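Duplicate of #3305? Posting structure anyway:
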């Protein structure tokens, strides 16, 4: 932790970055995002097992972009999100400055290529509990899965916490907010909830970096991340590419290749 704070202070003192984005202790001990804009504010940084939020979500915000170059304390999921954002041209490659902590050592990653090399040494595995739940759902009949998701999504209150916490949901004007015409019902009812979550899952197919932030953000505990995880896994299986592994990646669902599988056609 001290090595991380020292590196963050050096970057700020040398003028290499305008702010360092990491974690601090919030209400009731919850870890919250923390922007340190001077060396003194760096002392509030913490990094432990309670730090889970994907901080890449903030880097596409108008206010953050106008701060100047920002260094990010980056967990593996945040690193994957940064690569995907560069691939989708939402961040410039030269704007990257990630602080990756490995066994007490702090590595500064300053380009997409460096992030790719760093991630290549990491185990990229879906959490065991989530993998087991997806396998359980796939073992169900279609009718049983339908009943499961109907029950789960009936609890959705349309707060959009899942959308707002996702680093890949960066559109300033979301389809869900359109009312002229209104594509998806705003009210929290069976049809509106189903349409919202299905549209969101499809928009993230081939783009989800599997951080699970949407599921953690849900105030009523709906495992919405399983929808995007499954969509991402299906896309990877069909098209042979995964989001968040390279800064040079075309969107699978909008790119045609002659050798693409066509098993989805029934």
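Output from current build:
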């Amino acid at each position: 932790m001290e090595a991380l704070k020292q590196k963050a202070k050096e970057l700020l003192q040398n003028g290499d970055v305008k702010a360092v984005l990491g974690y601090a202790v919030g209400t009731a001990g919850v870890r919250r995002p923390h922007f340190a804009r001077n060396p003194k504010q760096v002392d509030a940084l913490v990094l432990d097992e309670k730090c889970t939020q994907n901080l890449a979500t903030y880097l596409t915000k108008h206010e953050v972009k106008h701060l100047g170059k920002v260094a990010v304390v980056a967990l593996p999921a945040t690193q994957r999100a940064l690569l995907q954002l560069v691939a989708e041209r939402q961040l410039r490659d030269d704007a990257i400055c990630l602080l990756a902590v490995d066994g007490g050592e702090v590595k500064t990653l300053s380009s997409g290529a460096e992030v790719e090399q760093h991630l290549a040494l990491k185990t990229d595995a879906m959490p065991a509990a989530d993998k087991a739940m997806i396998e359980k759902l796939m073992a169900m009949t279609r009718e049983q899965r339908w009943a499961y998701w109907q029950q789960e999504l009936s609890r959705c209150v349309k707060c959009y916490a899942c959308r707002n916490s996702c680093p890949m949901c960066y559109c300033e004007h979301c389809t869900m907010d359109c009312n002229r015409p209104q594509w998806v019902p705003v009210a929290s009812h069976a049809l509106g909830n189903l349409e919202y979550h299905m549209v969101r899952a499809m928009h993230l197919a081939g783009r989800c970096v599997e951080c699970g932030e949407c599921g953690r953000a849900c105030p009523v505990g709906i495992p919405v991340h399983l929808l995007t995880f499954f969509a991402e896994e299906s896309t990877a299986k069909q098209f042979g590419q995964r989001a968040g592994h390279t800064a040079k990646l075309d969107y699978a669902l909008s790119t045609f290749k002659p050798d693409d599988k066509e098993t989805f056609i029934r």
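Confirmed duplicate; merging threads. The mean pLDDT is 90. Residues 2-120 form one domain.
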